[in-house]
Amino acid sequence: MAAPDGKVKVAEERAGAQTRIIVGLDTSLAAREALQLAVRLAASVDARLKGVFVEDENLLGLADLPFAREISFSGEVRNIDPERMLRAIKAQAESARRVLARIASQAQVEWSFDIRRGRPLSVLAENMVRDDTLVIRSPGVASREIGRAVRAATRDARADVLLVSSGAGLRSSLSLPQLERQGMLLTTQGTLPGRPVAAIDEGTSGGEACSAFAEMLAARTGAPFLRLSARGQSPVDLAAAARQSGVGILVVNADWLGNDDDAVSLSAAAGCPVLLLGKDRGSHSGSAENPV
Amino acid sequence: MAIDPVPSDLLYRACDTSQFDFETTLDLEDHSGLVGQERALEALSFGTAIRRQGYNIFVLGPDGAGKHEAVLRFLAGVTQRESAPSDWVYVNNFQTPHKPVALQLGAGTGRILKEGMLRVIDDLKVTIPSVLESEEYQNRRQSIDEEFQEKQEHVFEELRVKAEGEGIALLRTPAGFAFAPVHDGNVLKPDEFNALPESERKRIESTIQSLQKELAETLERIPSWQKEHHQRVRDLNREMAERSVERAMRDLHALFATLPPVTAWLDAVMADLIENIGTFAVPRGEDVPEQMRMMVAMQALLQGRNGMPSGTDPFRRYEVNVVVDNGREGRTTGTASRRAQDVADAGGYIGGGSPIVYEDHPTMANLLGRIEHMSQMGALVTDFMLIKPGALHRANGGYLLIDALKILREPLAWEALKRAIRRRKIVVESVGDYLSLVSTVSLEPDPIPLDVKIILLGDRYLYYMLSNLDPDFGELFKVAADFEDEIDREPENDLLYARLIAGTCREENLLPIDRSGVGRLIERSSRQAEDAEKLSTIMRPIVDLMCEADHIARSAGATLITADHIDQAVEAQIARADRLRERSLEMITRDIIIVDTEGECVGQVNGLSVLSMGSVSFGRPSRITARVRMGLGSARIVDIEREVALGGPIHTKGVLILSGYISGQFLPEIPLSMSASIVFEQSYGGIDGDSASSAELYALISALAEAPIAQGLAVTGSVNQHGEVQAIGGVNDKIEGFFDICMRRGLTGDQGVLIPAANVKHLMLRQDVVDAVERGMFAIYPVEHIEEGVELLMGTPAGVRQADGKFPPGTIFARAEERLAAFADNQRRFAQRSDDVNNSKNRKGA
């Protein structure tokens, strides 16, 4: 992640590459919310935004099945035609690109767009590189599938993941007063200023790095910082404590999580987006006084 | 019977300036009333006092008589005693936006309501966003939104988990959802599926069908959840905004608490503000992308929301359109102006009290008001703020002055005015809508009750024409205020007239006029009235003369306008319009038009006529000739003008009267046998009027008696069957016209004009004519009976029938009767001879 006020020269440290926020795109409301969150995040840490539209292999395969039916949003059941499905996916991709362009431009965030084919979360995770941040907001996706994507991104690619599960309040999760002052509100309702940025410090260097990063983010967004010490408590208990404290975003060391379901459970319990920092974050992200 | 000429002192009645005790008009006060218009004033007084349907006023009188100014001056006095009527405003109708609501408010309070509403909106623009941004609101709103979202996600999650348990995945497609069998998270390919046992395939298909049904049912429930969600958001908004809105509007409510319609509207405003509180949070102005604004506008157009132009300020619907402002700020204050045009320029109002409005351009729209439209994306849209008041709105509760001719010239305006008076309400309607020419969506504003006194101003002809042709006119304009054209010229009125002149001087910023100038203006007024004993009330020509005299005086460096300046102005006026008169005189003096002014001739006399062309009129002599011969048993006079259709009916009547006179005057016991013809020589245009009938009779008698007529004399006057000479019009112009010819040819001392004695009182002749008469070079003869004229013209007495039934021998009438008797005798002999010839033929035949 980028550092505030140029204290840490992220670009030099990361082979001259600017930090990227990657977000999966489609035309659903959830994807739109994820995009808005990603844009806010990118704006707050001077990151580059990359939108990826994944042509879902499952949908293309579904169209080939003889009995496949589609239920429209109005409840109408109709046959699926492979060609029509492909055309609709392409149109969806173009629509998603336009939305990305508009929202990113409004927030003055540098952005790019890519189209891939495969299983959406898998493809996104596979294409992560170290220090990227993947924003996941996938209601209706199995928690295990999300967990696998989180693991692939944080452990294999050593990237970060911002996970927003069902029930995680998005609107108030990340306040950017400076953007509001510039008239760049991203939602019509505005954001709630001042919700704390919290970090779970489980006592490892990764935990420390999380705390340092969360503190930096809090300073950057003008929100209070809250350190939650693990002290043997389970992730869900800590998340519940965070929820009670009205935390806006929770920063957690991904290595600390156990099985694939933990990430989703944590996010659901916290009631806010969870930023999972990638493996070995502590070794390359600098000290707490000088977080990345 | 010889008659004396009119003495020179009766030829021009000079104004006796010694009667005045002022030196210049500076010493005189304005005359505030109307000179000699008691009848009109009484009618105005009655018409303005009576407040009943149909008692509107028609002020009739000649143009230039100062009707407008007089009526305005009168009304200014009346309205000061009356209180200012209500203000009227149009406001948005929140239930039916295309039917704006009209609210009646106390005078001057419309503006207060308007400003109050602007203040309320300005306040709410600050307070509502702060309420919406408060932590309390955001938390509660977030809670509602998330609850809704969770509810949706929950049912899908349940379904997904259920499907997953059956090895089926719930997939999100671009246009909805689908179920598919999966293995290890991947949808089975067709060949993988086909490889499954049939029972398994059937199970999967059956499960998917069941899940599809369940999903369809779930999707059907979503709209009601959305509705519920919106309702909860609305309720939250209402709860949060209610206090702010109520607080902001508290003062206005209290201010208009005694006006239920206003408080009802304020309640509606409050409800609408609370309902649409989100408007205060939506970014506006430059923050809204153009595309979005266009979309919103287009959407509104498609939905037919014509009540409010879309894309405009969303708070416009809370504004107040003050169509009638009777507050002090809305009126032009100060003293009443005399000029109607000043009133029109000041927006129609004068003074305080009830309004006096003069509508200078009474089109239908200017009377009833209009609904303007604004162009938006190629479409014309409108709202209550675009309702513009008409003269009826502004004059409501007071007086509306309209020129009758102007309103009659404007299409549909007259009918619209009558409709409004009859219905006693103002309904704003456009010409296009009225004629069904356009079908754009428009507004139907509440009609406004009408209580106005309409005062039409026009000439008499219009009044009588409307009375005859328009059955509604008598019903709707029951009061006629008839302005006098003339007033008596007497010392008291002379002074009043002088004060009128003084007031005009001040109003027109003219130099003061000295006593001689005032006297000369009074004399000009008499001349204008064509009567030495009257003054004309038509002031416009006199005011024009004053302005021109002022110009001459200033050019000469004078500080006062004197009689000399007035005379110069008159001469200049004549000179400017003199071309035709000059050409006419020239044609006579060059003998192109033959008019003798010396010598004598049988059956030929100089008649006098007046030529009027626009504002110019002048007298011109014409030769009238008559010839006689024996007729066929009757006295037939051929009017050649009539035969060729150049004579008008009155002229024809005059000639027929001659037959009556001849028949009654000569040989009453014997059938006449005369054929005569009379003609205006070298006349190529139409002739009407009977002012030449006496001249024609003189020519006829001269022809009968074979007595020559002196050509140095000219004649004007009509005659009746008894030979009495009757008054005519234009006597001054006629005398001056003949005088000018004689003057150019050289006055002989034998020249003059015979006029009806009844016209002597009308004489206001030019000074050069008066001078010539005083020198004995020209004479004006007042003739009462035809015998007097005969003697003057033919130099021999006409003769009076004696006891023996005969005229004295040698008199003109005796000679005429002898000629007629000879005609009759010849006729009898001629008839006898014809009978003899016929009898002889009959005998031979037998």
Description:
The complex is a heterodimer of chains A (292) and B (846). Chain A is an alpha/beta fold. Chain A has a single domain (4-284), classed as Rossmann fold. Chain A has helices at residues 10-13, 29-45, 57-64, 82-106, 120-126, 143-156, 177-181, 205-221, 235-244, 262-270, 281-284; strands at 20-25, 48-56, 69-72, 77-79, 111-118, 133-136, 160-163, 197-201, 225-229, 249-253, 274-277. Chain A has a 9-stranded mixed sheet, sandwiched between helices. In chain A, strand 8 (197-201), helix 8 and strand 9 (225-229) form a beta-alpha-beta unit. In chain A, helix 2 runs parallel beside helix 4 (82-106), helix 3 packs antiparallel against helix 4 and helix 9 packs parallel to helix 10. The N and C termini of chain A lie close together (6 Å). Mean pLDDT of chain A is 76; it is low at 1-16, 171-193 and 282-292. Chain B is α/β, with parallel strands linked by helices. Chain B has 4 domains: 20-32 and 486-576, Helicase, Ruva Protein, domain 3 (Orthogonal Bundle); 42-85 and 328-482, Rossmann fold; 101-316, no CATH class; 589-798, Ribosomal Protein S5, domain 2, CATH 3.30.230.10. Helices cover 47% and strands 16% of the residues of chain B. Chain B has 28 helices and 30 strands. In chain B, strands 23-24-22-21-26-29-30 form a 7-stranded mixed sheet, sandwiched between helices. Chain B has a 5-stranded parallel sheet with strand order 8-13-16-1-17. A 3-stranded antiparallel sheet of chain B has the order 3-2-7, covered by helices on one side. In chain B, strand 10 (374-376) and strand 11 (379-381) form a beta hairpin. In chain B, helix 18 (515-529) packs parallel to helix 20, helix 19 packs across helix 20 (563-576) and helix 24 (693-705) crosses helix 27 (786-794). Chain B is elongated and about 155 Å long. At the A-B interface, helix 3, strand 3 and helix 4 of A face helix 4, strand 4, strand 5, strand 6 and helix 6 of B. Strand 3 of chain A pairs antiparallel with strand 5 (176-183) of chain B.
